[in-house]
Amino acid sequence: MSTLTPIDASIGDAVALPRLYATLVGIFAAAALLLAALGVYGVLGVAMSTALGQLLP
User: Fold this and answer.
1) Could you tell me the pTM of the whole model?
2) Which stretches within the chain are classed as H helix?
């Protein structure tokens, strides 16, 4: 004899793992975006520091 489960529970169980994967990918994407922004900020800071050092001795 099979047990009856609500459709919400069945759907919730079916999408739990894909939802976890999507959440993890989103977190890593946000971290990558933050690191890329910090890298661009650092490179621009060094470039501007060098340029201003050449213009204002």
Assistant:
1) 0.71
2) 7-55
**For the chain, what's the residue count?**
57
How crowded is the C-beta side of 45, counted as CA atoms within 13 Å?
Answer: 6
Q: How far apart, in whole angstroms, are the C-alpha atoms of residue 10 and residue 20?
A: 16
pLDDT tens-digit map of 17-31:
999 999 999 999 999
| Residue owning tokens 């739990």 | 16
Q: How confident is the model at residue 42 (pLDDT cuts 50, 70, 90)?
A: very high
